[in-house]
Amino acid sequence: MPLIRKILLLLILMGSCFVALSSEVKYVVLLENGVKAGHQTVKRHGNKVDVNFDFKENGRGPTLKEHITLASDGTMKNYRVSGISEMGGAVREQFTIKHSPKKLNQGGFYLPMNSSWEVNSLMITALSKSKNNYLPLLPSGGIDHGYRMPTSALRLMPTLFVVSPHS
Questions:
Q1: In this structure, what DSSP letter does residue 75 have?
Q2: What is the pLDDT of residue 91?
Q3: Out of 35, 52, 83, 110, which could bridge 95 as a Cys pair, Cβ 3.0 to 4.6 Å?
Q4: Whole-number Å distance between alpha carbons of 81 and 52
């Protein structure tokens, strides 16, 4: 292979590594009648995620900015959100893991009071990485992903269950 081709191939491969580490995805939120109701922009750079979320229906809805740092298991090491809630109240919430999950005796996925839809996506991704199909939620509860056999079907159907700590 000529030297020029080798250099071009190397540059393409190096460029694809940077693309994989950093990305931006923009979503447009449409109502059933086709009216634009908002947007969500997700910027990723390594284990950091920044989200700009705005959704309005009948003039009400949240406008949020989130900054998330992910742990290697997909849970959130650091989470900050600020903005306005659905009914117009101020939102300022943050969460930080200061100790390793081993010291806590239990890791978990922090579930904020006000968040974008990206948090749900991250939670499902963390659940898919769990070894026992169960992900503890912080401050309490958990989410279980099991396969259940419905009585009316002969095939396995994936289901998602949110488990209360009081159940």
A1: S
A2: 96
A3: 110
A4: 10
